[in-house]
Design a protein that fits this description.
The structure is a single chain. With 110 residues, the chain is an all-alpha fold. The protein has 3 helices and no strands. The longest helix is centred in the N-terminal third of the chain and has 18 residues. The chain starts with a helix and ends in a 52-residue tail after the last helix. The relative contact order is 0.06.
Length: 110
């Protein structure tokens, strides 16, 4: 009984693996290359534009949270290897707080 179930599952899996194996004709490879070329040209740029539009126009901008000096946040076990060692590599003085200092810039006064 179990061997019949295994055989029923194995046959479609084996045939699908054969379909995606490297044993294909030159025409199959050319069709596949054209498909990926067209997807790259016609699907990727609209996807990037849609993601940009979503990130900067649809999603509302959030206000920064009030700075509170909690012990468990912004722990530095050793300083960062750049600058003064207290700022992250992509530090934004308006949105990223520094331990002990808070926000370095007011959002209204860029």
């Amino acid at each position: 009984m179990a061997s019949r179930i295994v055989q029923r599952v194995r046959t479609p899996v084996q045939s699908s693996l054969r379909q995606y194996s490297s044993a294909g004709t030159h025409e199959d490879h050319v069709k596949s290359a054209k498909m990926w070329k067209y997807l790259t040209i016609f699907a990727v740029p609209p996807s990037i534009v849609a993601a940009y539009y979503n990130a900067f126009y649809i999603v509302p901008h959030h206000e920064r949270p009030e700075y509170k000096e909690y012990e468990h946040l912004r722990i530095r076990s050793k300083p960062f290897p750049w600058g003064d060692g207290n700022h992250t590599i992509f530090h934004n003085p308006t949105m990223n707080a520094v331990p002990g200092v808070g926000y370095e810039k007011d959002p209204e006064h860029h």
